[in-house]
Fold each of these.
Amino acid sequence: MSDGLAAIDFTSETLLEIVRQWVAIESPTQDAAAVNRMADFAEGLLRDAGAAIERIPGTDGYGDILIGRIAGEEPGPGVLVLGHIDTVHPVGTLAGPLPWRIEDGRAYGPGIYDMKGGNAMAVAALTHLHATGRRPRLPVSVMFIPDEEAGSPSSRARIEQEALAHAIVLVAEPSGEGGKLTVARHGIARYYLETTGKPAHAGAYHAKGRSAIREMARQVLAVEAMTDYERTITLNVGTISGGTHDNMVPISAKACVYVLVPNAEAEAEVRGRLFALKPHDPDVKLDVTLGLYRPSYARTPAIQRLYDHAASIIRDTPWPAAGERVAGGGSDGNFTGALGVPTLDGLGVIGDGPHTHFEHIEVSCLVPRTQMWIRLFETLSRGVIAA
Ligand SMILES: [Zn+2]
C-alpha cells in the first residue's frame, strides 16, 4: 500500500503526499477499527523501512499498539520513538468541517498537526535511511499508540516497559510555537469528588435531609482555592452533576477536578490535600478518587544535552529550534520522562490548531525537520546523553 514511498527524495511534495495519506485515514480514539486501519498503513510504512513488526492486539476497546524495530550500527539499548495514531476528530471530519487543503503554504486536515505529520516524518526518515543502505547508529523502536487522546489507559504500562529498555526517548508530538522543542512537561490529573447525602422531601421533611449538592458546593470552593498561579498549580472543577428532582434534598453529587502541577512535589502536595478533604456536614459522605493522570517530568542534564544536540542539527535550517518549551499539556513523554529516561519531545511538525477545525502545519517544515530526524538517527549515541 506504500509503493513508491520507499525512496524518499525529500521534496516537499513527496513528504506532503505521505502526510496526506496519513491524514486520509481518519482514526478517532474511540473507533478501534478506524485506529487499526491507521495502524495497518503505518505497519506497511515501517515494513518498507526495514522494521521488524510487533503488533499487540488492542485492549479495553482501543486499537492495537504497533512497534517497529530497526537494528542499529551499535548494539542497544537504543532510541524509542513515540507517536500516537489516534486523533480527537470523529470519522467524517475530513468530508465535513476540516477537509484536506493547502492554503498559503499550510496544509490542513484532521490530526495533521497532532500528530500524523510528526509520525510521517519520523518514519520517512527511517525509510530514507533504509532505501539508501544506511542504518541508525543505535537500534530504533518506533511505537505507535492507539489511545493517547484518552490518556493512554490501555498502553501506559507497555510504554513504560519499552522506555525502560531504551536509552533515549524521542517524541514526535508537534513543536511549540514557531518550532520549540519540549524539554519538560507539567503533570496533569483528574480527581473525582463524590458526595452522598440523605434524601428527603424538600417541602415537608427538608430538615431531615442532608444535601449532597450543598456539601459539594463547599468542596468546589475549597478545591479551587488550592489554585496557585505563581507556582503553576491549577485546579479546575470542569464538570459537575447531582440531584434527581427539584423537590428532593439531593442524595448525590459528582464533580471532576482537572489538576495541573509543575513538578512531583506539587503533585504530591495537591494529592495529599485532596485526599485529606473532609465533609463539612458529618452526615454527608465524601469520596475522592484519582482518575487518569500523567506525571510531570523536569528537564535533566541529559535532556538538556539531547536538546542541544537536536538544536545544533537544525541551527542553520529555515526552522531552527525556536527555544526550549515546558509544555502544559500531556503526552506519552510524561510517562517516560517521569521514569527518568531522557526524553525529548516536540520533535514533530510546526503548525497550530490542535483539536480544532483549523488544525494545520507549515508545509515548509517537512523537509528540514525530516532531515533532522535522519541526522538524529545517524548521530544519537548513549555518549550524547552521558555527563
Ligand atoms: Zn498529540
Note: The radius of gyration is 23 Å.
Amino acid sequence: MAEIYDIVIIGGGAAGFTAGIYAARDRCQALLLERVAAGGQVLNCEHIENYPGFPDGVAGYTLGPLLQQQAVQLGLGVRLADVEAVRLEEDLKVLQTGDGDIRTRALIIATGSSFTPLGVPGEEAFLGRGVSHCAACDGAMFMAQPVAVIGGGDAALDEALYLTQYASQVTIVHRRDTLRACRLLQERAQANQKLTFRWNTVVRAIAGEDVVQRLHVEEVRTGAQSTLDVAGVFPYLGLTPNTLFLNGLVPLNARGQILTDLWMRTAVPGVLAAGDVRGDSARQLIAAAGDGATAALAAIRYLRTGQWRDGDAEAL
Ligand SMILES: Cc1cc2nc3c(=O)[nH]c(=O)nc-3n(C[C@H](O)[C@H](O)[C@H](O)COP(=O)(O)OP(=O)(O)OC[C@H]3O[C@@H](n4cnc5c(N)ncnc54)[C@H](O)[C@@H]3O)c2cc1C
C-alpha cells in the first residue's frame, strides 16, 4: 500500500502553509496539496497593509511564494493536485486525486473560498474578455478605459482603488446605500476623484461584442433600468466556501462553511479545518494563518495521544 502520511493539508493559502510550517517543524510526514498556485487568495491582494511584520505593506504575489518557501525549507512536501473527494477508511482519511489516492492519519482542510458569481448573463462568456476577479493581474489592461467594480466590502474597495491607477473612471456598483468596507478604505475611496458610486444598484447583464462594452443595471428601489459603458467589470460580491468536494464528510453551517471548535477540530476525529473555509473565521490573512497554526497543533496532539475532543487545550 502507498505511504500513509501523518498530516495532509488541502489548500496552499495562508492557513494551509502555516499549518504546514508547524507540521514540518514537528517532523511529521506532512504533505500539502494545492490545485492552482501557492498563496491562494493572497494572489488576488495587490497590496496588504494589515499583515504584521510588513510596515510598508506587502504585495500578495510576493507573500504567496514566501509562504511556500518557508514551509518547504522546513520539510513540508508540496504537490500540485486537486482533491476531488475524501472518504474515511477506519481511522484513515483517503483523498481522491487525479493521480490516485492519498492516505493520511490527520487531515487539515484549508481550501478557502472562491468568488461568488454575479449569476447574470454574459458573466461566464466574458470571463477573461473584460470580466475579472483580479485587479492586480488584469488592471493594466484597462488603461484609460472605464471599469466597474461590483460590491461594497473591503475587497471591492481595495480593488477599485487599485484600478484607479489605470482606468479612466472606476464606478462601484453596490446594491445598498452604505458600504461594509472598513472606514480607512471608505475615506480613501471618497477622496479619490476617479471613483464614483452607483448606490442601490444591481447588475442584470454584461454585454458587448467580442469584449465587455456595457453593463445593464437596475436601481433596486425604483426598478429603473439603465446601462453603464465599461470595458472591464470586477465582481467582488463575496465568497463561497470550497467545501462541495467534501460531500457530507463533516458538518457545515448554512453558508456551507465547516463547523469547528476553537481548536479547529471538526466532528470527525482527525479532520480539522482552518482559514476562510470554516465558520466563524475572520476571513483575514492573519486569522487564516492563526487557524493554520492552531489546527496543526491540534492535529499533532491527536497523532500523539489518539484523543480527539476528550481532553482540553492544556494537554496540547
Ligand atoms: C481581493 C481580496 C483582497 C484581500 N485583501 C486582504 C487584505 O488586505 N488583508 C487581509 O488580511 N486579508 C485580505 N483578504 C482576505 C485573505 O486573502 C483571506 O482571508 C486569506 O487569503 C484566506 O486564506 P486561506 O488559506 O484560508 O484560503 P485561500 O487563500 O483561499 O487558500 C485556499 C487554497 O485552497 C486551494 N484549494 C481549494 N480547493 C481545493 C481542492 N479541492 N484541492 C486542492 N486545493 C484546493 C485553492 O486553490 C487555494 O489556493 C483579501 C481577499 C480578497 C479576495
Note: Residues 113 and 194 are 30 Å apart (CA to CA).
